[in-house]
Amino acid sequence: MSDQIFAQLMREILSGILRPRDQLSERALVERFGASRTPVREAVKRLLERGLLTAGRRGVAAVRDIDQREVEELYAVRLKLEAWAARRTAALIRPEEITALEEINRRFEKAAAVRDLPRMLDIKAEFHSMAARATRNRFLAEGLIALREKAYAVRYASWQDPDRARETVEVHEEMIRALRARDGARYRALVLDHVSGPLDEYRQRLSAPAPARTHLIGVRRRPRRGRS
Q: Would you say residue 124 lies in a domain?
């Protein structure tokens, strides 16, 4: 049960269903998942350890809010690693892995067609994890995955645009063609553009008013303050 709660909350944070500063009440989560307090606390503890939540008073945690400085620092590191990884992936990926990427992208396209955001998130993570593993460097792959997870605030901005999902399918197809051709320069350029695009959108949204939200069981909203 703890694993299920953790996975569901993780998915909601990374897809933007739960946004920075949204509060998670232990009591409400117990009611939502029909679980005892122990698995809920274990799941929340794991999210705290991953840096996705911050602890609050009386059994209430909040989705961690990443400020602009942290975002810029995170992406400075991420883009460097992505560039290095792209060169290794293009050189070392195996034919069967490229075929697997094609199948993953077809599943992503189906999920995008019905705007299934959690499913899109899972499949997109699968696509990029496959590409990362093709670097044949376990530590590099794990680092890339961790940095992508920590960029959830930026990724949320891009998930809200349906056109972005359709573009993602096309970009994935271009990446696959570049990998089949062993065109490392083209693949690297596509990866870096794909990673930096949502960052530009996020910068534009920093001072924009938040859209109206529907109520989520197990979530408490805090009033949002304007950011400069």
A: yes
Nearest one of 51, 39, 36 to 6, comparing CA atoms: 39
- pLDDT on residue 116: 82
In this structure, are 195 and 96 located in the same domain?
A: yes
Report which of 225, 102, 17, 215 is spatially closest to residue 93, judged by C-alpha positions: 102
155 lies in which domain range? 68-205
- What is the C-alpha separation between 42 and 38, in angstroms, rounded? 6
CA atoms within 13 A on the CB side of 15: 20
Task: Please count the structural domains in the chain.
Answer: 2
Residues 74 and 50 in one domain: no
Q: How, if at all, do strands 23-25 and 60-63 pair?
A: antiparallel
Dump pLDDT digits (tens) for 149-189: 888 777 665 666 677 788 899 999 999 999 999 999 999 99
Query: Is the Cα torsion angle 121, 122, 125, 127 positive or negative in sign?
Result: negative
User: Which tokens in the block code for residue 13?
Assistant: 């944070």
Q: Pick the residue with more confidence: 93 or 115? A: 93
